[in-house]
# Entry
Amino acid sequence: MDVAPVLVNGKWQKSESMGTFRAINPATQESLPVSYPVSSWYEIKKAITAGFNAAEKIAALQKETIAEFLENYALRIEKREDEIVAAAHIETALPSLPRLKEIELPRTINQLQIAAKAVRDRSWSRPTIDTATNIRSMYEPLGGPVIVFGPNNFPFAFNSVSGGDMAAAVAAGNTVIAKANTGHPATTRILAEEALKASLESGMPAASIQMIYRTDHADGKKMVSHRLVSAVAYTGSRSAGLELKEAAEKAGKPIYLELSSVNPVFFLPGAVAEKGPALAEEFVSSCLLGVGQFCTNPGIGVIVKGTDADNFVQKVVELFEAAPVGTLLGPKVYEGLLGAFVHLKAHGASLVTGGKSACSSGYCIKNTLFSVSGDGFIADPVGLQKEAFGNATLLVIAKNESQLPEIAASFEGNLTGSIYSHTEDRDERLYKVIQTILRKKVGRLLNDKMPTGVEVVPSMNHGGPFPAAGHPGFTAVGIPGSILRFAQLCCYDNIRHHRLPPELQDKNLTGSMWRLIDGAYTQEDI
# Structure
């Protein structure tokens, strides 16, 4: 049986395999023909050592080399877009058009190009200089490999070998060991092929980007806690992420997690009275976008009981039942979603519509809506915040406006929180109360807007308080903020000028780099 090779130390090589697996076509439930290896600990250690040695070589390179690699990689991805899109479509059942080819792949290419610009500009490193004391500091690479675990729902933009975490880690000057998501190994292999070619053409060390497909759980925990590993980025299930978090933190390794989020949406009474049917359409569109398999899909909607609310709920039910049913990413998502239904029912939620399989050939579940009273939610907020990852949502029906603040206070940490309010001032007092509470519980607060779009701009925060993410102060999207996860703050006290990093010398290295000099941001020389 032929088994796909792994990318270790700059070479595609036969795996020191502990076993194999195959990807599954979610639309047919059939195993795809290629087998992929489960890497042994011996193989993982080889990759870690090679990544550590390569990191030392990258430290001696001109920053332009790193920027050229990121740009060349983006160009190479673009040239193989048809092949990459076709592979991802088969492995994930996500539509080729427009989702994969016209939305996600351009975003991925753009992220790499933005990272390259940040490398050239150097402002991300936040050079800080106090001339009176001759103390200077900046952010620099961590000095070892960053392990990146990619999720199943974004085969390009969050892929372990091409996504935002990888781009940020490389922009900071680190090497990357990508742990492919087993839902789309062929897609990841194609991307890794182009990453290797781009790195070698640009003059990067051979082991700058490495890729393995799978490890067993014990080796995964050993990998993130290895003494030569600098940091870990993980996007995926809450249970697996917490196991890795425990192992990494016990070894003193920083780990940045994106785990789970129900992204509450509050519909205030004035907004519902003013434009209830339009809000219902907007809500359902966001809930079911991508078959509900975005980390920012609304998992919970909150509304106040009354005639307007009844009409709103009825409209949502009609739209859920009329909307086409999409294919889920694979068996684990399918089983996980059905398991979430059982959990929600056990904690008091009532099934309104859906809740069962929708097709025989693929992994499909009917668009599903649950409801619970405000009292029921407040009585068991943790149980009812179980993430139902897929085309399912829970509506919380508050008994009155006064109950909304208590409901808002019951939420765990989330990536996003949205509040819809009347266009004039009818909801203003209530809006201020809810915003004050929700602001502390979400990374991104939205007003009159659904949360599913995540713009790749410097001001974006794709993070939030636990359990949405592992640390509330960092973002997985948005450069330069995302780069800082993979850098260390280095201080130079009374170091002779010629021995300082170029960014900290008196002359502005790039001319455009922003530096904090004696308390003022400037692009000027000293």
About this structure: The first helix runs from residue 41 to 58.
